[in-house]
Please model this.
Amino acid sequence: MSDVLTDLVGLVAEVSRTRPHEVTGASRFEQLAEWGSMAALRLLAEVEPRWNVRLDLRRYLATETVAELADVIAQERLRSA
Amino acid sequence: MTRVAVVATFTADGVLRLLRSALEQAGIEPELHLCPFGQVETELTAPDSGLARFAPDVTLVLLHDGAFLPAAWDPTRLDAVEDAVRARLESLESAIAGRGTVLLHTVPLSRVEQRTVVSYRGRAALGRLWRRLNSALLELPDRHPSVHVLDLEAVLVDEPGPVRDARLYRYASMAWSAPAERAYAREAAAFCRAVAGLSAKVLVLDGDNTLWGGVVGDDGLAGIELGPLYPGNAHVDLQRRALALRRQGVLLALASKNSAGVVDELLAEHPGMVLRAADFVAKAVNWQPKDGNLRELASELNVGLDSFVFADDSRFERELVREALPSVRVVPLDGDPAGFSDLVLAGDHFAVLDTTETDRSRTDLYRARRERNSSAAFSSPEEYLHGLELVVSVREATRYDLPRLVQLSLRTNQFVMVRGAHSEAETQEYAVSPDRLLLVISVSDRFGDEGVVGGMWVSRGERAWTVDNFVLSCRVFSRGVEHTALQALVDRAFAAGAERLDAAFFGSERNQPAAAFYPSVGFSTREPSGYTLPLRPPPVVRPAWATLIEGETADV
Model:
């Protein structure tokens, strides 16, 4: 697992109030308990300062799995580095 | 528990979550309610709205620039913009009137709106227009006693980043960025703490390396850092802030590990000292552990330790106090002394809804009280009380008394029959309504004039009068003041032909001293709650040592 993914899994579990071991890179956001647009924005508010990135909201909302989002974050970090 | 409602012109779900944790940190167990967004006026005014059904203790009204500024505003027609802004403000004002305790705030104008005007002259005109809106918001409390306004525009100056995240605004109608939401939640929690009467009352300051730089016992009077140059000026500034707090009713105490003589000399003679001996309600200058000193101070002042803020540069002392007295709020004065003033004020521990005349002289009142307690040259408490020359005055409230009475009912934890019973608006109702009565209690004795120390909120029925609340400052109870004041009410009720006097009581952890009062003067328990006292024959509850003066002023 990449550095980003390890931390991201924890954040997603926290925001979606899921037990940490139930979230993996393959987890699909829409299948998480208590997921919705407000939860997605809560996650965004955690993610951006944590990795010091600013994501395009269209791309962010289009990601379907946790691993996919980890990739988006990693790419954005490289781009802005 | 405090019921807090949020009603906003934008999506405020994020604020709600931050607010919950900020309130819990402030020692408040909140019950929160979020109204559907964009329906501020409807929620506030409709009698069957979710907000009305929730019946909040506090209503937080959250506003954003888009609620005032029309989406298609024309920078060449600022007069039309101003009309629109004013119309919205007027509708808001009529909606908040009489809705209980409400917190509004000044509204920041997001940068994109400002940049939309290209001329400097035009931007200045827009800036003036916007400041007129914010000034008008800040003036609302003058017309509506239970409305308060947070100067959010000023608060945000110190926050990192813009107030608006355009992505969140366009996608979810969230008007505030995460830092702006956090700042608001922090400030609103401090406000709720003030409403709940949980403001701190005492600031305990360390001496060495806090009020002055260096160790006075080692460095000598001439060797400490305290004066116009850095770092001495940072300590001078901390003293100025402490003095400003003292002038607004906060009690200052000094807790310093030193020889008392050295510190007395410093307080009396050092030209750099802003604070002098008379500014401190008490000084614990000794070599005892500070937790014990604080505990003693709390019992002398009759103020709970949860009303104490303790500021010290020494980690050792802070940990000691934190461990031994977990309810004391500890302010760590770490790092550069230039930051000390900010650190002491950062938590907003002393924020209150309003200050009154009494606040200015509170230190003197408490000092006089300590002298009173320590003048032990009497063989019995009775004899001591006779020697006090206690005069209790009971009169009807005027409108000038209202802020002080509301403040007393918020600040008082021990001698209060029903905590948080009446808001300012309700208290005013007691002063003007013909079947209500609002009595003000003032006290003086040979040590000085205590001023207004309590009040009684009374409903007058034909056969029975009811004491809906009875509040007395913890400075004065257990001297017979409560008995004497009650006598005044008993006399009035009897003269008006009432057959009995009922009294409401709601017990909590803190008001045990009040719980004992009614039974101790002959009241019996009443179902389902409270107490009652027959007025035939007229009972005598006044102690022999107090003089009662009655006034009848009622020029509300």
Q: What stands out?
A: Residues 216 and 223 of chain B are 7 Å apart (CA to CA). The mean pLDDT of chain B is 91. Residues 202-346 of chain B form a domain with the Rossmann fold fold (CATH 3.40.50.1000). The interface with chain A takes residues 13-14, 17, 167-168, 171-172, 174, 178 of chain B (CB under 8 Å).
